[in-house]
Amino acid sequence: QVQLAESGGGLVQAGGSLRLSCAASTRTFSNYAMGWFRQAPGKAREFVATITKDGASAAYPDSVKGRFTISRDNAKNTVYLQMNALKPEDTAVYYCASRSYGTSSVASLYDYWGQGTQVTVSS
């Protein structure tokens, strides 16, 4: 069982930045690939970023590529999402998730989820 807790969300103006954190309650954090997803009201959950167990590789959809950066600190059991040049369409609840296997952009393949943190970008 892995418990995940997101933090760092808030209200920011368009063009601004936020850094989300996700702390994991497990001693084997380095055994999990991690992902960030988001869900806006009335929309399906959307892939945002994923990172390998060792942090050496990451992947993003075109909608955030070049603006968002995922990273992790296995010594602190934490994964981060640095979000720059935010747009109103980035407004959503952001979730982190973990899976025992490799990275994936498919939400249903992740085993554990946090409760989410709200990000609101004003125009």
Task: Describe the protein.
- With 123 residues, the protein is mainly beta.
- The protein has strands at 4-7, 10-13, 18-24, 33-39, 46-51, 58-59, 68-73, 78-83, 92-99, 112-113, 117-122.
- The strands form 2 sheets. Strands 2, 4, 5, 6, 9, 10 and 11 form a 7-stranded mixed sheet that branches.
- The radius of gyration is 13 Å and the shape is globular.
- The N and C termini lie far apart (40 Å).
Describe the structure using short key phrases.
single chain; 123 residues; mainly beta; seven-stranded mixed beta sheet; four-stranded antiparallel beta sheet; 11 strands; 47% strand
Helix/strand structural class? mainly beta
What is the mean predicted local confidence, pLDDT? 97
Percent of residues in beta strands: over 45%
Shape estimate: globular
Distance between the termini: 40 Å
Low-confidence stretches are none
Q: Can you give me a brief rundown of this structure?
A:
With about 120 residues, the chain is mainly beta. It has strands at about 5, 10-15, 20-25, 35-40, 45-50, 60, 70-75, 80-85, 90-100, 110-115, 115-120.
Write the layout of secondary structure elements.
Blueprint: E1 4-7, E2 10-13, E3 18-24, E4 33-39, E5 46-51, E6 58-59, E7 68-73, E8 78-83, E9 92-99, E10 112-113, E11 117-122
Parallel strand pairs: 2-11
Antiparallel strand pairs: 1-3, 3-8, 4-5, 4-9, 5-6, 7-8, 9-10, 9-11
